[in-house]
Amino acid sequence: MTAADPLAQVDAIVARARAAQIHLETTGSQQVYDRAAQAAAWAIMEPAHNRHLAELAVETTGLGNVADKITKNHRKTLGLMRDIRSAKTFGIVRDDPAAGITEIARPMGVIGAVVPSTNPGATPANNIINALKCGNAIVVSPSPKGVPTCAALLGYVHAEFDKIGLDRNLVQMIPGRGSKETTQRLLEISDLIVVTGSQNNVRRAYTSGTPALAVGAGNVTVIVDETADLAAAAEKIKASKTFDNATSCSSENAVVVVDAIYDAFVAEMGRTGGALIRDEKKVTSKLWIDGHLNPQAIAQDADALIAALDLTGEVPAGTTYLAVETGGIGPDHPLSGEKLSRVLALYRARDFDDAVDITRRIQGYQGAGHSVGLHSAEQDRPLVLARTIPTSRVIVNQAHTFATGGSFTNGMPFSLSMGCGSWGGNSIDTNLHWRHFFQTTKIVREIPADEPSVDDIFADYWREIGR
User: Fold this and answer.
1) C-alpha dihedral, 257 to 263 to 269 to 272, nearest 10°
2) Of 134, 150, 249, 420, which residue is the catalytic one?
3) What are phi and psi of 296, to 5 degrees?
4) How far is CA 449 from the centre of its chain?
5) Would you call 420 a catalytic residue per the annotation?
6) Residue 200 has what pLDDT?
């Protein structure tokens, strides 16, 4: 390989990262790890940096909007720093004399992180902070459109590192616009892979031979039942659906409304700016072009979306999103899948049981394992969803986008990457968070014997079943 060979460049980047990580691990402390995480967090949260990153992201990707990206960069990072503030990630993290086990935290090594264009600042920052908190180095592979934002973020991180004397090689990125080949090389030679974004990258991560934390696709479905506070539900759905122009994998894609309150809820949606479209072909004919989502509609402001769908003059002034009536589910009904836009599929259910069945079928088609939502006053109904739907999260009476990835009003870890369990082909069913970024060495000491008799184990079985 020549010096200009892009694969050789990846090898060299990872080699520098590995040397920096070994030095950090052998000379570090909890205070050093914490300070590194703080430096990376301030690199994106400093107000001027935050605004520049948000503006650059929208300018270069064409996705989302600046104000919401500023909010996302700030709140996601602040929430993560709250989560990790008192977390022990260095030295002894568990000592159990009764079990004779002492656990010592050890870094994973070099993290290879593949990040999407939908969140080119917040997602790499989240991964960088988690990696540093646990004593790792990290190499980021951004999507081509996300390169400028990621490069600017790393520039801010390195400036903070210079203030505290940390090696810049702890945080690097694949140079240029990258390629499938350079990303594949990173997947193969890292110690741990974190992948958020395209399902093609997710599949490649799981087949790379390197331990991988990769997450599934979203296609959030939310039920509104006859006991729900309709005004509150409509406001939350609107706030969630329109945030950052629906770039989040946690943005609602379908709402299933029980027949008894359907008309009343549609009226509440209209009050919040949700325009009802009864003829779904008016939307599907323009939202998809040759089987692909229309780039003029994806993650755009409402006026741009309406123009791209040729609906100007056909929806009320002040429309903030579209609710499109449909009943179909599956590959022949694209509205039942993820739309990455301010477009909701609206389903009418006979009753709650029918709503659960519709939700289950939508998730079976796309988005299995990610999350569903419920607006209801019935205390037992979330449990019905949890036992019936192939999902890792049931979000109750909350704005889904803000709740799923961690909120200051729920206990979910702050994250931009949601594991989807075996339903979504993932190794985790939790939000990706700091605990996934270190491993432990166990010291095991001898303790007094704790050996049961055969009778202790099988006495009840013998009584009921026989020997």
Assistant:
1) -150
2) 249
3) -75, -10
4) 45
5) no
6) 82
